[in-house]
Amino acid sequence: MKIVVPLKRVPDLVEDLEVGTSGKALDTKDIKFKLNEYDDHALEEAILLKESGSVDEVVAMAVDGEGVDKMLFTAIAKGADKAVKCTGGDPADSHQLGKVFANALGAESYDLVFTGVQSVDDRDGQLGPIIASYLDVPCVSAVSGVLLSGNMATVQKEYSGGMMGEFEVDLPAVIGMQAARQAPRYAPVSKIRQVQETVTIGEIPAGDMGSGCGSSAFSMAPPEKGAEAEMLDDVESLIDVLKEKGAL
Amino acid sequence: MGDILVITEHLKGEFADITFEMLGKARELTDSSGGQCIAVTFGSMSGKAGQLGAADSVISVGGSDDYNPESYAASVQSVVSAQSPSLVLVGSTSMGMDVANPVATTLGIPVISYCSNMSASGGGFSCTSSMYGGKMNVVTNVDNAAVVMILAGFFSADAGKVQGSPVVENFSAESGAGKVRFKQLIEPEAADVDITQSETLVAVGRGIGGKDDIEVAEELAEILKADLACSRPLVDAGWMSKAQQVGKSGMKVKPKVYIALGISGAPEHIEGMKNSSTIIAINTDKNAPIFDVAHYGMTEDLFDVVEELVEELE
After folding, report:
1. Does ipTM exceed 0.90?
2. Which residue ranges form the domains of chain B, and what is each CATH number?
3. How far is A197 from chain B (nearest CA, A)?
4. What is the spatial distance between Cα B166 and Cα B156, in angstroms, rounded to a whole number?
5. If DSSP codes are grouped into helix, strand and coil, which group holds residue A40?
6. pLDDT tens digits, residue range B21-68?
7. Residue of A119, A127, A176 whose CA lies nearest to B111
8. Which residues of A touch B132 (CB under 8 A)?
9. According to CATH, what is the number of the domain A2-244?
């Protein structure tokens, strides 16, 4: 049993985000990128399944670019067995990204693909179901529990209000992970460094990325401030509000 | 313009609010740009078509009442192929994600996520997506057929809650290859506290830092006789329970007073708490989207504020 986990870097929202000169996209010059947090959950769940003995191999995959080697070395330091990067392409949207991963998955055998359920920048749709459409395999999104037996996965999909739907899925399949059953682990820097010195990242050509999502952003701007919050200067004013609103 | 299809969503025999939010918007758009507003229902939900009076007609694809990612997507795909609508509105929800993406990708039409505003514009539509955790709005102009995923809680459900008697057409839809099978619905575990009933909530977010720091908020909650709630990352980190989570995949709350400590206010969280009577947000990031829904705000360090507050109140 083999799980492939596509990983992607996204802007860290802790940063002050600004619109770039095109007026349609972020100014990415000075902002920090980090692993999409849902991808981190997807990787964690894959590693947990491997540790529990139901999976033989976990492969971390990413499109080549700045900071990608470090992200893949970190994935191995956390417990992935192998890392592969797709080279020679710079996908512009989730559809092209999905196409690159689908191409790579055509070359790399797999039973399951775990993606993060969404990302902060996927304006043109979510990667998991897009990959599944290109590969013509089933997909379930917003999953927070996976059990494997034979050629089948039993997954728990989150609905609203804490309800879940349980489904059986024939493999191969793509699962959009909402949350791993435990918080994603950290890899010590020393271990990442050790991996960096001993492991080679595999390479696969990105291949034909297709024509993309068929729509483009017209403009980007921070949300207009509506009825702005009344800002309180001190704790006394806060206490007054709490009293007035009946919380005290 | 052509028709707008609204893909309804239901759970346990009731239409979800997102259904009415989408219907109200679709009604408004078709009223101004022409075309029909058509609701698509699943299983036996066409029996409740009387609640879908905002629609001109209803297409019932039948099948199971139990949601199934594969078969629901296949059904919607066959309806969209047959109807060639201008727009397909799908919830930006757990269920909508499984449906919107494969339908759009397979039919080769665009999908636009996280739509928080829409209007008719030129010969088409303009969609605003709330992205980067609510910190940026991205506008996409749609001139040809597209699938648009509508964020829950942004359009008025009341506008779509219109009784009527739309014509119901039964449609013989595809139901997929049977590779995904529904097993059961799992109810949430009974919680000690039902936060949907709380009068005052002290809610903590990522800004709280670490598990041990939650004590600070607990102390405040105790003094205010409030219950403790949180945003999603704290549940994922294993620090708080699912029953305490407010937002899209958690609880929808509307206390008299909601105190948000270190919560940035991503759309997923806002969806669950925006109907609180009074929202007080404390966050050091003055640009945090939580201040757009809050009635009162403070940009001080939450620990300083809470400590001083607790001291004063004691």
Report:
1. yes
2. 4-170 (3.40.50.620), 195-313 (3.40.50.1220)
3. 31
4. 21
5. helix
6. 999 999 999 999 899 999 999 999 999 999 999 999 999 999 999 999
7. A127
8. 11, 13, 17, 26, 120-121
9. 3.40.50.620
